[in-house]
Structure formats: C-alpha cells, structure tokens
Amino acid sequence: MRVVVLGAGVIGIATAYELARDGHDVTVVDRHPEAARETSFANGGQLSAHHGEPLAGPGALPQALRWLGRKDAPLTYRLRLDPALWSWTLDFLAQCPEPRFWDNTAKMLRVALYSRERLHETLDRETVAFDHLNHGIITLYQDARAFDRALDEIRAMKELGSERQALDRKGCFELEPALAHASTYFAGGVLTPGDESGDCRAFTLHLARRCAEMGVTFKYDTTVTGLERDGWRVARARTHGEAIEGDAFVLALGSYSAPMLKTLDLRLPVYPAKGYSVTIPVTNDEMAPKVSITSLEHRLVFSRLGNHLRAAGLLEFNGFDTCIDDRRARVALRGALQVFPDAGNADGAEFWTGLRPLTPDGVPVIGRARQENLILNTGHGMLGWTMAMGSARISADLVAGHAPSINMDGLGWERFA
Length: 417
Ligand SMILES: Cc1cc2nc3c(=O)[nH]c(=O)nc-3n(C[C@H](O)[C@H](O)[C@H](O)COP(=O)(O)OP(=O)(O)OC[C@H]3O[C@@H](n4cnc5c(N)ncnc54)[C@H](O)[C@@H]3O)c2cc1C
Description:
- With 417 residues, this protein is α/β, with parallel strands linked by helices.
- It folds into 2 domains: 2-40 and 202-268 and 362-416, 3-Layer(bba) Sandwich (FAD/NAD(P)-binding domain); 46-94 and 131-195 and 271-358, 2-Layer Sandwich (D-Amino Acid Oxidase, Chain A, domain 2).
- 32% of the residues lie in helices and 24% in strands.
- Strands 4, 5, 6, 7, 14, 15, 16, 17 and 18 form a 9-stranded mixed sheet that branches.
- Helix 1 (10-21) packs parallel to helix 7, helix 1 (10-21) runs parallel beside helix 10 and helix 4 (98-125) crosses helix 10.
- 51% of the residues are buried.
- Bound molecules: flavin-adenine dinucleotide (FAD).
- Residues 7-12, 29-32, 37-40, 43-46, 48, 223-224, 252-254, 256, 275-277, 301, 312, 354, 356-357, 378, 380-386 line the site of flavin-adenine dinucleotide (FAD).
C-alpha cells in the first residue's frame, strides 16, 4: 500500500519505521530539511512510561491561580483573542475532576507502557546510539504534604500498572549521589524504577536513516498546505508544489495537526503548550545525575545525555509563538543550577523552545479519522517521546486493518466530538 506520513518528528518517523517493516511503500513529508527539527529536537529526554498522569487534575486550577501574574511561574497563560485557546481551556477544566483524572491516567499509562515494550523490542533489533540510560526516574517532593499525598497515590498507581517506590532523603542520595549537592530542600522522592532517559532527536535521526535504508521516500523542505477529500477518503496532500497521492495517510504534524485538520472540517482540540529546555555541557561528572530527575518545585525534568545535562519544563499557552524569552529560559537554567550546582558550565548553556501538542485530557489522539484512510497519530503533549513506539505500532496496525494490541477505547478523536 502507498502510505504517506505527514510529519517527521519522533511520532511520524517511528510510524514510518513500523510501516516500512510491514512492507508498505512509505513517503514521509516534512517542511524541514531533516527529521526532528521541531518539538522532538531538545525535549526533556525522559522515557517516563510510569508517569501517565495528565495535567488536568483536581489540583490544576488552584495551582495555576497561585502562579497567576508571576513572570517566573512554571506556567503562564496569555489571554489572547484565540477561540481555539478558549475552547481548549474549557475542555481542559472539564477534565479536572478526580474521576476524569484517573480515567485519563489509565488511558495514558496504557499507551505509555505499551510504548515502553515496543521501544525495547526495537532496541533488541536496532543498535541505536541515543545516550540511553535505564536507571529509573526520581520525582522529588519539596513539600512534605505533597510527599505524603504521593505516598497515598503509590497504591492507586500500582493498580494501574505503574511500579513506584517511596524514598526518604537518604534513599534519594544513595541512588543519585549528585542530589546531595542540591541547594534546594526536598522532603523525599518517589522512584519509578522502570523509567529511562535518552536523546529523542538522536533516536529519531537514527530511525529516519533506517527508514531510508528500508526504502522509505523522504520529501523534506515540503510544506503541506491542506488535505483533499474524495468522498470518504483522503485523496492527496496539497503542497506548494506537487500534490502527494496515497492509499492511506498518517497525520503526525504535532501541534500543527489541528490547523491541518480544519482543511477537512474536523475540529481537534490539540493546542500548542510551549516549553523550554536548557542543555549544559557537564564539566564535573560527579555533580551531574545519571538517574533522571523530576523536581516538582521547579516543574523541571533533568536527564543526563552523554556529556550534557538537559533541564526541561515550563508551560506557556501563547499560540504558536516559539521565540525564546530570555527571562523564561533563565528560569530553567536557575532551576538546574539549584538542583545540580557545579555540574556543568552554565556559560555554554544552549536554550531551546518547543510546542507540545497538548489535548485537554492529556491523552493522545490515535485512531481513524472520519475519512477511513486517514490515521491520526498526534496530541502526545508532555509524553510524545515516551509514547512514540507504541503509538507508531498502533497506527501501522490500523493502516493494515489489524486490531491493535491494546484496548483503543477513548483514544480516538470521537471523544471530543
Ligand atoms: C520542553 C519540552 C520537554 C519535553 N520533555 C519530554 C520528555 O521528557 N519526555 C517525553 O516523552 N516527551 C517530552 N516532551 C514532549 C515531546 O517532545 C513531544 O510530545 C513530541 O516531540 C511530539 O512529537 P511529534 O512528532 O508529534 O511533533 P514534532 O516533533 O513537532 O513533529 C511534527 C513535524 O511536523 C512537521 N510539520 C508541521 N506542520 C507541517 C506542514 N504544514 N507541512 C510539513 N511539515 C509540517 C514539523 O516540521 C515537525 O517536524 C517535551 C516537550 C517539550 C516542549
């Protein structure tokens, strides 16, 4: 079958890889000259399959209100004349009550844990250099009451398949000695031993090269301007040059998936949630972590990527703006220097921003669109790197007309209809 994959981020490339393995004639289209040039470029690096919690939860609104108006807040929300943002926000608030939170957590864990399994199958087959570490993730709790609540959640998460262990301060230091130098207090931590970290861009570029070896055609520097229908099917993708025809299409355009679907009159609430990362050259090995860390106080994640330390986080709702606001970027750097002082050379820090394709419920959109030959694989938000390989396999199964290996309830676009 001729399958056209729109988007060469980690989601599009992973999907092209699975489709090529299935023997399809695959074409990948992207507006950049190579893969992983947008949100998959310099993310937090965490493969956090055991962290399936969405943003929308009982504590989300009170927390957001506490941060309102603070320039250094981890979350900023710019009131704009943007109906897409308003309706997304209303949808988000509707997902905050506790029952919705647990339902969405279960769905996210389902995709994330399946993706972990698929990633390991891929790594058994391919030799990929992507600074992969599998020492788990420690989530640090600065607030003692939040830590107590986290202890209560361990049992609930276990029932959903997420393995977690509580660590006191000493336990955190034993597992990650670099934490002993932190200039910030924390009450304790929760370890997810099954979690990992690695460089998303390096992985994606490797898989793209493997795709090329398997015969996948790449149309880079090609902007898709719309999708054209032929009855209940998508016939072609319009570009500034040729129209690209296919028997099936996979939409993996990250945050740009929603505007693209408007050309088919489909409303998809995927909104860009901007984040920042800072990558610091490590100059002192002992002071830089090898276990991936999440600091809840800073709302930052830390991953060791070879001889670099990456800190990533912050959340901004401000449309498709990707400018680096120096003040915001320095919030990430300051956080990194508080948790890991002297780990690296801050003068050599590189800043980056990316737009997370975020759904109101945090759950990705994977499934068939109204057009039977269009598969949606988008909206992975905070966990696109973590969920890439499972989402790719599911999409390839749908293209082939096979039933995916996991329960697909609540993953499709219909939940927003
Ligand atoms: C600060 C930050 C930290 C993060 N940390 C983590 C983490 O630790 N772990 C994790 O699992 N996830 C993390 N994420 C999320 C993860 O990076 C994303 O979910 C993932 O990269 C999304 O991949 P994607 O392929 O859907 O989108 P993208 O990587 O953005 O790919 C979409 C592609 O579509 C192309 N495109 C768009 N429109 C068009 C068009 N009209 N024509 C042609 N091409 C087009 C773009 O060029 C792009 O290459 C983080 C994100 C951010 C911003």
